[in-house]
């Protein structure tokens, strides 16, 4: 039965696949990089490793993940861990081999340079998320429900704010976040960051 549930370790491969198939501003990025695994290793697998209790999936009738949301409740601590432990262990081979082209080089540079305090809105809105849905899960309200599920969990932990960064060219995502009450905040070139307070109801 289609629905939302907590992530399970058996979902890991499906979640990584969703990440790749939505990585190009919501479109399929398969084959875009020298190794498809670069995308999930940066944008979803570290969250599953460190905060599986804040990872939720939308499943199809066969209980296979077709969408997900992942989160770091404390961005500063997460980015330090990513920089000091995750990326040296999981990204060293790609860094040593060198990038196949400019976009890949930019992604690898971004991963290597992630650190606490790099995002100025991270202190006011300490949690951050990544959310992706395959076409089969889009346009049915699952994105809103995933974010509602996550924000409920964060409020229960006393987290005061949440932020995210989307590609500046992903018009559908930009409109979606605005509809859910996320407010645009100063952003790097080519991206748009959004933030939202999480006040107890």
TrEMBL record:
It holds the Pfam family Acetyltransf_1. Transmembrane segments: none annotated. Residues 2-201 form the N-acetyltransferase domain. It comes from the Bacteria. PANTHER family: O-GLCNACASE, PROTEIN O-GLCNACASE. This is GNAT family N-acetyltransferase. It comes from Microbacterium aquimaris.
């Amino acid at each position: 039965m289609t629905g939302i549930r907590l992530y399970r370790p058996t979902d890991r491969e499906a979640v990584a696949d969703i990440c790749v198939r939505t990585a190009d501003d919501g479109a399929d990025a398969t084959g875009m990089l020298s190794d498809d695994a670069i995308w999930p290793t940066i944008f979803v697998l570290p969250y599953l490793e460190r905060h599986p209790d804040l990872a939720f999936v939308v499943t199809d009738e066969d209980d296979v993940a077709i969408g997900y949301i992942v989160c770091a409740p404390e961005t500063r601590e997460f980015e330090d861990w990513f920089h000091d432990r995750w990326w040296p262990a999981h990204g060293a081979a790609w860094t040593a081999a060198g990038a196949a082209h400019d976009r890949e080089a930019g992604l690898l540079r971004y991963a290597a340079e992630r650190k606490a305090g790099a995002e100025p809105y991270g202190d006011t809105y300490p949690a951050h998320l990544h959310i992706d849905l395959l076409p089969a899960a889009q346009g049915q309200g699952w994105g809103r429900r995933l974010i509602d599920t996550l924000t409920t969990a964060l409020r229960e932990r006393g987290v005061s704010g949440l932020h995210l960064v989307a590609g500046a060219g992903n018009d559908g995502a930009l409109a979606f976040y605005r509809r859910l009450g996320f407010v645009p905040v100063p952003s790097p070139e080519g991206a748009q960051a959004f933030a939202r307070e999480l006040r107890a109801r």
